[in-house]
Structure to design on (184 residues):
């Protein structure tokens, strides 16, 4: 079993790529935030609001380590939250446990994805586009030193439609020598 960790800014395509990989390759995709929500029975937003960021980050680290020791036989792709590599020993743990891939997309495309999906993100839901752009730039600056420690980078710019997703998945499968699923 191999573990590939997908890291990157919000809207860099971790979930889109991860779920598409699960369909195309013999991998199990796990979204770390969704795994935490299922374990705790609360959304990430509810955890932040009710218990605070520090409690969430502790849950995140524990869940990350639990998933890596889950005993699955297939390769695992774990989509990490944008802040996962920036807290505690998470990045050191991921670097020692599997392959860390930093998804990078064109900055204007990332920003547009963030603005388009702001309703799903409580931290920015009430912000206008200019404030989101400033927030995004500052967050990216703060996280850069953590993300840059990844084993590899991968271009996730082209994930806007089925054709782009299929092409990007094919490139990822080839680059990381994943086994393709056999179509029935």
């Amino acid at each position: 079993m191999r573990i590939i960790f997908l890291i990157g800014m919000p809207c860099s395509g971790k979930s889109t790529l991860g779920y598409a990989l699960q369909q195309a390759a013999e991998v199990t995709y796990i979204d770390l935030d969704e795994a935490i929500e299922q374990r705790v029975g609360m959304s990430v937003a509810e955890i932040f609001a009710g218990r605070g960021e520090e409690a969430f980050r502790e849950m995140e680290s524990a869940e990350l380590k639990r998933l890596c020791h889950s005993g699955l036989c297939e390769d695992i792709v774990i989509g990490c939250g944008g802040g996962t590599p920036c807290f505690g020993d998470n990045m050191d743990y991921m670097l020692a446990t599997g392959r860390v891939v930093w998804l990078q997309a064109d900055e204007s495309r990332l920003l547009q994805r963030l603005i388009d999906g702001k309703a799903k993100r409580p931290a920015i839901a009430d912000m206008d586009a200019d404030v989101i752009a400033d927030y995004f730039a500052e967050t990216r600056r703060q996280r850069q030193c953590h993300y840059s420690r990844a084993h590899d980078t991968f271009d996730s710019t082209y994930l806007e439609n089925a054709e782009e997703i299929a092409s990007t998945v094919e490139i990822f499968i080839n680059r990381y020598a994943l086994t393709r699923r056999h179509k029935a």
User: Anything to note?
Assistant: The mean pLDDT is 93. The longest strand covers residues 99-104. The beta strands are 3-7, 27-31, 75-79, 99-104, 152-155.
